[in-house]
Prior knowledge:
It comes from Streptomyces polyrhachis. This protein is mainly β. The chain is 4% helix and 45% strand.
Amino acid sequence: MSGFSKGHRRVDIKLSWDPAPLGAPAHDLDLVAAAYPAADPYGPPAYLVHFDSRAPDGTIILQRESRDGRGYGADEVLTLDLYRVSESYGRIVVGVAIQQPGARLPFGEVARPKALVLEGHTELARHDLAQLPDATAATIAEFTREGSGTWRLESLSRGYDADPVEFAQVMGAAREG
Length: 177
Ligand SMILES: [Ca+2]
């Protein structure tokens, strides 16, 4: 899956999945965003945004979160107000990780794990995470600030074998083409 376009201002990322079968432990997927310093865009994240962590300036917000995939429509929604992000941040990576409280749970065992990347009503990218059946986490989008100050989106589909905490630390290490 590839996407490439420029000048994004406000982007929504919507994650959905279906609940675990009755009687089975809940399937809990998490959207995770990591912001990296402009001075060191492939170093450690400056901050993380997920169900338990907020952006210090409120420019990246988890609008909705779910622990079990129940309910209608998107289960988790992340909004990135890119036009308000401080120039001290040069790169933002967004991914999805599956909580691993018991037996290993990869995307292939979660029902209909999907993510949409939207700007307004325009669909920028669509991800079927079942296409990474053995992974327990995946990066889906990378935003890079251009010299002109605009944000470029690269659509990713890179699987990881990591729980959400491990994933948050390594999700930005890969340098894409
Ligand atoms: Ca969750």
